[in-house]
TrEMBL record, chain A:
This is Iron-sulfur cluster assembly scaffold protein NifU. SUPFAM superfamilies: SufE/NifU. NCBIfam families: NifU_clost. Residues 1-120 form the NIF system FeS cluster assembly NifU N-terminal domain. It holds the Pfam family NifU_N. InterPro entries: NIF_FeS_clus_asmbl_NifU-like, NIF_FeS_clus_asmbl_NifU_N.
From TrEMBL, chain B:
This is Cysteine desulfurase IscS. The modification N6-(pyridoxal phosphate)lysine is found at residue 202. InterPro entries: Aminotrans_V_dom, Aminotrans_V_PyrdxlP_BS, Cys_deSase_IscS, Cys_deSase_NifS_bac/arc, Cysteine_dSase, PyrdxlP-dep_Trfase, PyrdxlP-dep_Trfase_major, PyrdxlP-dep_Trfase_small. Coiled coil: none annotated. The gene is iscS. Its cofactor is pyridoxal 5'-phosphate. Its main location: cytoplasm. Its EC number is 2.8.1.7. Residues 4-364 form the Aminotransferase class V domain. The lineage of its organism: Bacteria, Pseudomonadati, Thermodesulfobacteriota, Desulfuromonadia, Desulfuromonadales. It comes from Desulfuromonas versatilis. It is found in: Cytoplasm.
Length: 123, 402
């Protein structure tokens, strides 16, 4: 059902955890399937210097959370805002169709974290 | 890698005795039992022997056994065949909210055609209320369709009592006994059942064969029209090898029922006890005592079922989940919903279903691997704080409202 890349990120998720005194925190959930993703950011000079995630969800939810943290790390916040759920799925060599709707919320969680950063830091 | 199969409610391994009995019917005994020539005559007896073996297990006459392709076909036949046959008597069916989709979806399809369906609720243990069942019967009621044992939780309905109620009101009684046959004693006379469905692949026979018991004199309209097989009850060329396999599986199930059930229950209880001792924040779903001896359904708070299943699979352990993400639907298990299990716990419900081949070592291995997997997933969960302490209810509510 899942690609090798999805299983790799699911089995060895990158950047799991929380950041103390994070500059931005974003949380999204899918009421239908119950998945919840939370992303923490540390931003310096508009660049994402550290990023962590916590996820309650299926294999796709964990893998997309892990992948989006890898993709966003080192990017400016404006570059990170351009990341989409579709781009995350593509980076994982694809997801099953139903997972695109229910479990691929990672970029949304990232965007929420950036929004929170901008609101709290006046960026 | 070690392979441990704890998904026997989904399907079972074909038993060696069953396979050995079937093989000649793929080779030299390949005839069609409806044919009059030597090739047909050679296998006709095998079909009748299979019928006798099924009948013996159910305590009925061989003439009351009709072979079908699977449990779903049997359930469709039982329900639609009754509606068609009793159209002038009424159009009301009573069933429950926790039936297998083979029953629920059939009822929903009939509802669109004008039937009235009562879906009885269940309590937190997955048990129905007999008074509610009795109160639901009207002069339009033509069928009560209630499963014997639940496929997800293992909860056993009081079939004999339901049969007595059905008899009292002269309402036809169908039970989907796909999960119960081979695990608990199933006697159609004691249970006052009119229609009972079983499936071969749940009891060590192959997929593609099942049977329906139809009490003598029960008027039914066939689902499949065609040839005159099965006393005009079910058209279609016989699956001879499958029927032979089903017969042998029924023989084995009958002969080993007590011993197998006791062994599965002992190992199932050991698994449950071990999980309770090693993993905090769990909920066992299903009736504490009136439960199939092989079935354990557990919810692990703060984690999601599919993630757990994938992690177990990476250790070679096969189980099943009521998680929405494993089903193709976005909703978690309808059984958990009917039992009012908290939605997050429903997403993590995990079913371990044992079989006759399950060993003590299998259970030890699961108990060795499972706690670490749960802990790892919980540490990744935003519903579980980083000190490893669960969130308060208020904190959970805030997150869940996101």
């Amino acid at each position: 059902m899942y690609t090798e890349k999805v299983m790799d990120h699911f089995s060895n998720p990158r950047n799991v955890g929380e950041i103390d005194n994070a500059d931005g925190v974003g949380e999204v959930g899918n009421a239908s399937c119950g998945d919840i993703m939370k992303i923490f950011l540390k931003v310096e000079d508009n660049v994402i210097k550290d990023i962590k995630f916590k996820t309650f969800g299926c294999g796709a939810a964990i893998a997309t959370s892990s992948m989006v943290t890898e993709m966003a790390l080192g990017k400016t916040i404006d570059e990170a805002l351009e990341l989409t759920n579709a781009a995350v799925a593509e980076a994982l060599d694809g997801l099953p169709a139903q997972k695109m709707h229910c479990s691929n919320l990672a970029a949304d969680a990232l965007h929420e974290a950036i929004k929170n950063y901008k609101e709290t830091h006046g960026a | 890698m070690k392979r441990i199969y704890l998904d026997n409610n989904a399907t079972t391994q074909v038993r060696p005795e069953v396979l050995d009995a079937m093989l000649p019917f793929f080779r030299e005994q390949f005839g069609n039992p409806s044919s009059v020539h030597w090739a047909g005559r050679a296998v006709a007896g095998a079909v009748e022997k299979g019928r006798e073996q099924v009948a013996k297990l159910l305590n009925c006459s061989p003439a009351e056994v009709v072979f079908v392709s699977c449990g779903s076909e049997g359930d469709n036949f039982a329900i639609k065949g009754t509606v068609e046959a009793l159209r002038d008597k009424g159009n009301h069916i009573i069933t429950t909210k926790v039936e297998h989709p083979a029953v629920l979806n059939t009822c929903q399809a009939l509802e669109k055609q004008g039937c009235r369906i009562t879906y009885l609720g269940v309590d937190a243990d997955g048990m129905i209320d007999l008074k509610e069942l009795e109160a639901a019967i009207t002069d339009q009621t033509i069928l009560i369709s209630v499963m014997w044992g639940n496929n997800e939780t293992g909860t056993l309905f009081p079939i004999e009592e339901i049969g007595a109620i059905a008899r009292k009101y002269k309402v036809r009684f169908h039970t989907d006994a796909v999960q119960a046959v081979g695990k608990v004693p199933v006697d159609v006379q004691k249970a006052n059942v009119d229609l009972l469905v079983l499936s071969g692949h749940k009891i060590g026979a192959p997929k593609g064969v099942g049977a329906i018991y139809i009490r003598r004199g029960t008027k039914m309209t066939p689902l499949l029209h065609g040839g005159h097989q099965e006393r005009n009850r079910r058209a279609g060329t016989h699956n001879v090898a499958g029927i032979v396999g089903l017969g042998v599986a029924c023989d084995l199930a009958g002969a080993q029922l007590e011993e197998c059930a006791a062994k599965m229950k002992r190992l199932r209880d050991k698994l449950e006890q071990g999980i309770r001792e090693q993993v905090p924040e769990i909920k066992v779903n299903g009736h504490p005592t009136l439960r199939l001896p092989n079935t354990l359904n557990v919810s692990f708070a703060y984690i999601e079922g599919e993630s757990l299943l994938l992690n177990l699979d990476m250790k070679g352990i096969a189980a099943s989940s009521g998680s929405a993400c494993t089903s193709g639907s976005l909703e978690p298990s309808h059984v958990m919903g009917a039992m009012c299990v908290d939605v997050l716990l429903a997403h993590s419900s995990t079913r371990f279903s044992l079989g006759p081949e399950t060993t003590e070592e299998d259970i030890d291995f699961v108990l060795q691997e499972l706690p670490a997997i749960i802990e790892r997933l919980r540490q990744m969960s935003p519903l579980y704080n980083r000190q490893g302490k669960p969130l308060t209810c208020d904190e959970c509510r805030v997150i869940r409202s996101v």
